[in-house]
Amino acid sequence: MNPIVDPRDFPASSKCTYLNAANVSLMYQGAEKAVIEWQKDLAENGSINFDETAEAAVFGDLHRASARLFNARPEDIAVGSSATELISSLAWAVAPESGTNVVSTDIVFPSTIYPWLRVARHTNCEVRLAEGKNSYTDPDDVIRLIDDRTAVVCVSHVEYSGGQRYELKELAGVAHDHGALLVVDATQSAGAIPIDATASGVDALVTGGYKWLCGPFGAAVMYLAPHLQDQLDPGLVGFRSHKDMWDLRADRLEFPATAQRFECSTMAFGCAIGLARSIEFIVDVGVERIFSYNKYLANLLIEGLQERNVEIVSPHNEAERTSIVAARFPGKDPGEVARKLKAASVMVSARKDFVRFSPHLYNQSADIQRTLDRLDEL
Ligand SMILES: Cc1ncc(COP(=O)(O)O)c(C=O)c1O
Prior knowledge:
Elements: E1 17-18, H1 29-45, H2 52-56, H3 60-70, E2 77-80, H4 83-94, E3 101-105, H5 110-123, E4 126-130, H6 139-145, E5 150-156, H7 168-177, E6 181-185, H8 197-200, E7 204-208, E8 220-224, H9 269-285, H10 287-307, E9 311-312, E10 325-328, H11 334-343, E11 346-347, E12 349-351, E13 354-357, H12 365-377
Parallel strand pairs: 1-11, 3-4, 3-5, 5-6, 6-7
Antiparallel strand pairs: 2-8, 7-8, 9-10, 10-13, 12-13
Helix pairs in contact: 1-9, 3-9, 4-5, 10-12
Bound molecules: pyridoxal-5'-phosphate (PLP).
Pyridoxal-5'-phosphate is lined by residues 82-84, 109, 111-112, 156, 160, 185, 187-188, 208, 220.
């Protein structure tokens, strides 16, 4: 398969073999440029160019780009500094009451569930975690935990460890049949897997920007379904939370009627501008195309690993797989394998008792071959 992006858009891709997007991806050069330019202008000119009007409008491009990414409207998108921050604000906004429950899995990334655990300490709601084995959770085990007392089902669209993918529409259907919300952490899928927020029926979906979206640290977005937008009082509030942020009166707090009520403060705004650039780039390349290309790379890797008797931990079936390839090297310490690969200029991550490979759009088949060659040398 031919490469789908120009390597010049990811200058770092020529420096090493980078199979680590599930940790931090290489950044799209247009995003890097935007972050640096914004920061430089602020450092050298203060608010001469970044005045009050510019500050009020600063998230516009990111709202529009994210709306294109998720098939939503710009008013359905809120910007924050990290996925953790947005999930936390949402968890406090929903604050499931005593007697209700929150359903998730015990292999989910901590940031997806800790905010709900924290709220549960306060409200005394129950948190039910489906038990995962070998970095995999049977979706039916999640569904079995949902009942009429369930307030929220909160899952990671793709599990960070083994790369298992959940069918969002099915989960949304079951959650809604029981009057629960489906909240999705898409940090390991947005930019790599097509997401139609509207058609899937998710109630809220959050993603960080520095993994599969190829953006910087410091910016994240949340999609909030229209029916919730005037219902939820965000857990985190500040001067930007008021419907007219420059009103600045201390004696009132009226939220905008849109998802943007979850935007509360100043932040490293250049990161939001940079993330808008990288999402525009990803959408223009086409997420469906990226998904097939990444799976092609992952297949090459899986075949090569299996020829070398390495155990593949990630799901193999089409409905649940992604391009995250978790592999167990019998008798080898995964941290040691990752360190040796790094010394040989191949970047991967050790997670639990396996090595996690995560190729993305800037990789080519030669990267996979080089990785297998380095493994042979080890
Ligand atoms: C599924 C998932 N959610 C959230 C995060 C962390 O997000 P942030 O750093 O934006 O808070 C990670 C990081 O690995 C992750 O894998």
